[in-house]
Amino acid sequence: MLQRTGEIRSGGVRLTSIRQIMRAILIALIFASAGSLILIYQFVPTEVVKLELGDVVPKDIVAPRQVVYTSTIETEAARDRARSLVSTVYSPPDPKVARQQVERLRKIFDFLDSVRADAYGSLAEKSEWIAAIPDVSLSDLVVDQILIMNDTDWAETRQEALAVLDEAMRAEIRENQVASTRRQLPTKVALDTPDNQSSVIVALTEDLILPNTFPDEARTEAERQAAANSIPPVQATIEQNELVISAGRIVGPKDLERLQALNATQPEFSWIENFATPAVLVLLTTIVISFYLARYAPRILADDRRLILLAFLLLAFIAIAKLMIPDRGYIAYFYPIAALTMMVVVLINTQIVFILTTVLALLAGYIATDVPAAIVIYLILSGWTGALAIGKDQRVNALLAAGVYVGIINVGVIFALNMSRSSDFTNLGILLLVGLLNGIFSAGLAAIGLSVIGNLVGITTSIQLLDLGRPTHPLLRQLLLKAPGTYHHSLMVSNLGEQAAERINANALLVRVMAYYHDVGKMQRPYFFIENQPEGINVHEKLDPQISAQIIISHVKDGLDLAQKYRLPRAIKDGIGQHHGTSLVKYFYYQAVEVAKEKDLQVDPLDFLYPGPKPQTKENGILMLADVSESTVRALKPSSAEEIDEIVQKVIADKLNTGQLDDCELTVADLYHIRSAFVDILQGVHHPRIKYPEQVKLEGQAESEAAAKGSPPAEAPTPARPRPSLSLDPSPRPATLIRRE
């Protein structure tokens, strides 16, 4: 049945069968599994060494690139130095300690007073009692001075000693300052004090000097922590090609940190980070793309070749991203995502390109270790530019132009993302150059990929079609030499088909090239086809109708054989095999029916049918209609645009009513535009011509001579055999031959 306008089909195949659904699910699962393995697998294990603290380095390790990292070890060392510079904080001097020591000194003097006043004790006993006083250590000389000193001097000594101790204990005395304070006691004694009294004063007070201020641990720790916190993280730099650690050296903490900054050490395996995360990301990517295809591009899901090709291209570019993006510096900006978008536009579908670009850019951002956000923005804009630049003009020069546009956009994006670091002109210049070369590289890679993949997968690309459309192609040159009538007919069909395809947004280039080759099988027996026969000679007059029909039908098989020999792409082979569909070779069938009636035999219509299949795409449907319309109009030689329009309408109606357009994607609106395009071109080719006087005179003479001889005029010779016409009349009677079968 003819498809209604707006109904979505996929080359005549719907994604409704369980087998098709299961195949699509299987391809999706394989893609998810392979994508997860690509993200998990380390492609460059030679750059990773398994070293731990205390290991001996087996070989020199050189930095492959410049790395700026935050050094934890250097930061801690700087903070420790800041902490050490903070002195211990002490509490204020405690007056209780001073009072306690002064009171202790008074009690010592009270004891000494009692000893000096004892009339019954001997000098030796008194000396022994004084030496036994705790907290003070007195020499024998000092003891003697205490015992022999008169009462006046002793009273002065007592008063001065209490004053010296009071003054000394008022000052701040730390644990480590006791000795220095004791040494300074002689300077605190009044200068007019005799030496014997001064020595007694110092001896009695020096042992009573004690610390009166103590460390405040809480305040000290708080100030040290504040000093440490004020130190910012220390940034360390490893220059490119710098020797990180030499062979034979024992790995220390700082060495290990430098290696980790370069990602040169084997990281500890984590199920979540190393396996689960990439697997979930790829699975979500697969689900999003699958739902998008099912909703907006079901034709791709129904086409196994394109679906497998799409999965393969995505996996290939994920693998390329894994190689180029992580820790590769400038190389990450050389990642040719635009090449993928160009190939997908040409080989598969334009609509799906934008979601593929976005998803792949996000995966690349996950892979990236340096400025992932910038990488994502850069790749999205680069890929979208490649798809938009190539558009529908899928020619070689369009690829080159798209590469230039991609390069320009890359330069703009890189400049915008690096404006804050514009002072580093060398680095910015290199990045800009890489971005520009990326566009050219992407275009070249896309051209190579289209050529190689198109041949391997059997998908016809615009590049192949342009090459096949050259008049110098060996097969077309043979067609011109062996069957010139067929060659010129093919050129006319190509013009009709190309214009019709452009009006309904079909692949005009494909239709044109298919038209060039659709009748190449006629080269094998060119004179069995009317456009190659000399005037008035018909070789079929001496042949059985069934044999003639088989010869006519065989040009399809002969064309497919030549297409296989010259390795024409599958789309061209489809055009050769489908341009007659399963039509009936009417003229020879009707003639065979008449012959069979005379002999009372039956004729099998299947012997007079083309093998098909019916046209499966818009382009093949256009080719069929253009082929029949051109030959019919050329044979009937209409004299007005109205007659041409009527003939084309009948041709289209005949193919529609006989079911030849059931499997293609042409809608009623498409058929209207196709008819309009055919009429516009055929009207220009088959317009009425004015007969000049000389031509009229010659025709008149020919008619007179013919009348005298009793034969028809030269302009309308009576054919030895009737020729069938394209008619919607179901009568089995043969008509005049006006079309090629």
Description:
The protein has 741 residues and is an all-alpha fold. It folds into 3 domains: 95-206, no CATH class; 270-450, no CATH class; 465-709, Hypothetical protein af1432, CATH 1.10.3210. The protein has 30 helices and 4 strands. It has helices spanning 18-40, 72-84, 95-117, 123-131, 140-148, 151-170, 178-183, 185-188, 195-206, 217-229, 253-261, 271-296, 298-302, 304-324, 337-347, 353-367, 372-390, 396-417, 425-457, 462-468, 474-482, 484-503, 508-517, 545-565, 570-578, 586-598, 618-636, 641-657, 668-685, 693-709; strands at 61-62, 67-70, 235-238, 243-245. The strands form 2 sheets. Strands 1-4 form a two-stranded antiparallel sheet. Helix 17 runs antiparallel to helix 18. Mean pLDDT is 83; it is low at 1-16 and 702-741.
CATH class of the largest domain: Mainly Alpha
What is the typical, i.e. mean, pLDDT? 83
Which architecture of the largest domain does the CATH hierarchy give at level 2?
Answer: Orthogonal Bundle
Count of folded domains: 3
**Per the principal axes of the C-alpha atoms, what is the gross shape?**
rod-shaped
Helix content: 55-70%
**Rg computed from alpha carbons, rounded to a whole number of angstroms:** 53 Å
The total of beta strands comes to: 4
Order of strands in the sheet with most strands:
1-4
- Low-pLDDT segments, ≥5 res: 1-16, 702-741
Report the end-to-end length measured between terminal Cα atoms. 24 Å
